[in-house]
Amino acid sequence: MSPDPESGVHRHPIGVAAERTGLSLDVLRVWERRYGAVAPARAAGGQRLYSDVDLERLRLLRLATLAGRGIGQVASLGSEELAELVREDETARGRNGTRQAVVGPAPAEDDIQRALEFTRALDGLALESLLRRSVAVSGVGVFLDALAEPLLRRIEEQRHAGQLTTAQERLATLTLRRLLDGAMLSLGVPNEASHLLVATPAGERRELEALLVAAAAAVEGWRVTYLGPDLSADEIAGAAVGSGAQAVCVSVSHPARRGSLMDQLRRLRATLPAHVPLLVGGVRAHRLAGELEGGGIRVIEDLARLRAALRSGGRERPAPRSPQGRAGRPQ
Amino acid sequence: MSPDPESGVHRHPIGVAAERTGLSLDVLRVWERRYGAVAPARAAGGQRLYSDVDLERLRLLRLATLAGRGIGQVASLGSEELAELVREDETARGRNGTRQAVVGPAPAEDDIQRALEFTRALDGLALESLLRRSVAVSGVGVFLDALAEPLLRRIEEQRHAGQLTTAQERLATLTLRRLLDGAMLSLGVPNEASHLLVATPAGERRELEALLVAAAAAVEGWRVTYLGPDLSADEIAGAAVGSGAQAVCVSVSHPARRGSLMDQLRRLRATLPAHVPLLVGGVRAHRLAGELEGGGIRVIEDLARLRAALRSGGRERPAPRSPQGRAGRPQ
DNA sequence: GGTACATTGACAAAGACTGGACAAGCTGCA
DNA sequence: TGCAGCTTGTCCAGTCTTTGTCAATGTACC
Predict the structure, then answer these.
(1) Is the CB of A15 under 7 A from strand C?
(2) How far is B34 from chain A (nearest CA, A)?
(3) Contact A305, A221 (CB under 8 A)
(4) I want to staple B124 with a disulfide (CB 3.0 to 4.6 A). Which of A185, A225, B103, B148 is the partner?
């Protein structure tokens, strides 16, 4: 957070700044000219060079104006005050819970920005209130695709890049988890729904992605049994049989050791009854596609595709027609 | 209630004021014009700028009018009188209303047995609906004490004795977790609630107990920031400061190495601000009691006692009078 | 030479301000 | 019961501010 003179002081031309803040070129210039909102450095030739701090500030200013404040009123605020103001607006908005005029269909980049902002400030209240409202406004399905998944990806990136502490990452992922759990809870299970088992193989500690999968399946009307991360192939197969699952989905995002993972998956496939399709999803899944596709394992690239697969596979008939084409008679 | 140097200095334009108070733009203006209900500051261009005090007053005025009073009658009242009036209206309403603090029948041994049965059968659906029903019938507080905690203990015992597979244990704990998450979600956060941070120290993988703690605190009206398991003392302390927590509770159930744990706790105590009480709970906590009690660390034996401590400690005043007796002035 | 950017001035849409009008609901009185 | 008067929320018209965008012109970089 200190203004490191070396790393991190990347300077961005105005075009990049516009892209990253969501503000137009004109607005960037006019905010500077009229209100002194930021004072970017200048190149030898006079071109503006925005620092990361500038960009952050501009993002906050934008959020403040979106909340109904005049740029002229907020442009002179200090960064601390500004961040606090934005957070206050969010919690206030969540609290009074009165009908929001704009029922914007899909949550957008904005919401992701805001969520990251609250995460950084460790403001769980504002974060939860934001996510909660998004679920309520957009519905669970859209929430998953447009907010939860991209947000999760950003958090992992930033965590990896050292821009988030463990505590911040925790706050965000656990809040997200609470929301997903709550959503799955509120999505009742239709009678006679097909039954999907979701888990991640041994060595996988990350669970949120699996939970996204589970929630997506629940949205698609499946009855989901979610067993969480780090289970051995035998445990998964045993549970699938024991609970009468009609399909199994495992999520692999950060396999500890690739070889071991492949073994696990093959073993799982071998142990599962032939008529139970096995789907593999997760950010790293596509790298394994070549090796797996042949052996009766279907690889799913992203959440949207997973939902499509589940939709076509499940629902109409008790036993999903196996998404991968060949399946024994159920029963 | 010193005038907080941070919040409260912000001035809000009329749109934000309308959103936060629930009054229309017109009403805001006309109450000012006709009755001098508030006298917001003005920007250079004449736009109204409401202070937080103004907003609070307007909220009270709104409540008073909703209770059937004429704005002309109450607009000139002082803030004190107004607040009292609203409180009176509220209690009067509560008296004749049918609000009954009916605490349903407590779930019994029966339910625990049934839950274990479903767990063994890997019937997540039945388990979930059982637990869900219990929450609905008994309320969250009773559910935690009488079902969730004992059930969790049984599951751990049986798992330990090899009577449950990993998958079965997972099914149960994750279902329980989902319920707890959902419950915390549905327990709104009261305004101005005291703020508690919950986590478990590094080396602790078990999280469910911490989640029980978090849920219990939420029932008691605290605003809870839950950071999950396996965090270093520094991370916890940093997050407590960063999020402005007024108390910290860590849960220790299966310390990997006792010595390391003690170090962590001492370090945490040393790093936390003196006025932030540190509570330690969990099944193994009482074994550490002797060694910890002295150094400004309060050990809590079980969930009921934790709730009692939280109840006496929080709520009445912004900064909870430290449950352990001695604490720096909240300032 | 083309793309990206800077500067300045002008412009138009959105929103806020003011004073006044109006309609619906309630009270009091004949 | 019916009417006058009061209260109160909403609406309107005209004016003023704020703010985003655009056009024109010039400069820097590849």
Answers:
(1) yes
(2) 26
(3) no
(4) A225
Q: Out of A278-292, B168-182, B188-202, give the one with best mean pLDDT.
A: B168-182
Distance from CA of A41 to the nearest CA of B (A): 29
Which pLDDT tens digit goes with each residue over A126-164? 999 999 988 888 888 889 988 999 999 899 888 988 889
Q: Do B122 and A239 touch (CB under 8 A)?
A: yes
pLDDT digits (tens, 9 = 90+) for B84-131: 888 887 776 655 543 334 455 556 778 898 999 999 988 988 899 899
- Chain B contact for A235 (CB, 8 A cutoff): yes
Give the pair of three-digit tokens for residue A260: 């071991």
C-alpha to C-alpha distance for B54 and B33, rounded to whole angstroms: 15
Which residues in chain B are contacts of A167 at CB distance < 8 A?
A: 227, 231, 235-236, 238-239, 242
A242 vs B: CB within 8 A: yes
Q: Is B223 helix (H, G, I), strand (E, B) or coil?
A: strand
The verdict on B238 touching A (C-beta cutoff 8 Å) is: yes
| DSSP notation for A163-182 | SS-HHHHHHHHHHHHHHHHH
- What pLDDT sits at residue B2? 40
Interface check A166 vs B, CB under 8 A = yes
Separation between the CA of A293 and the C1’ of D8 (whole angstroms): 72
Compute the distance between CA of residue A292 and CA of residue A266 in angstroms, rounded to an integer: 8
Nearest to A142 by CA among A282, A303, A311, A323: A303
Q: Is the CB of B47 under 7 A from strand C?
A: yes
Please report residues of A whose CB lies closer than 8 A to that of B177: 181
Rounded Cα distance between B216 and B184, Å, is 9
Question: Percentage helix, strand, coil, to 5, in chain B?
Answer: 55, 10, 35
> If you average pLDDT over every residue of chain A, what do you get?
81
Q: Which residue has the higher pLDDT, B173 or A289?
A: B173
Higher-confidence residue of A94 and B187: namely B187
pLDDT confidence of residue B131: 92
Burial class (CB in 10 A: 0-12, 13-18, 19+), B71: middle
Q: Is the pTM of this model over 0.90?
A: no
Which chain C positions come under 7 Å from a protein C-beta?
Answer: 4-9, 15-21
| Portion of chain A with pLDDT greater than 90, in percent | 33
CA distance B33 to B39: 9
Protein chain A, residues 51-70, with a C-beta closer than 7 Å to any atom of nucleic acid strand C: 68
CB contact under 8 A, B239 and A72: no
Distance from CA of B200 to the nearest CA of A (A): 12
If phi over 0 gives left and psi between -120 and 50 gives alpha, with beta otherwise, what is residue A296? left
Residues A164 and A156: beta-carbon distance below 8 Å? no
Say how many CA atoms lie within 13 Å of B164 toward its Cβ: 25
Q: Note the pLDDT of residue B111.
A: 87
Beta carbons of A118 and A127 less than 8 angstroms apart: yes
Contact status of A182 with chain B (Cβ, < 8 Å): yes
- The reported pLDDT for the residue numbered B319 is 34
Neighbours of B295 (CB within 10 A): 11
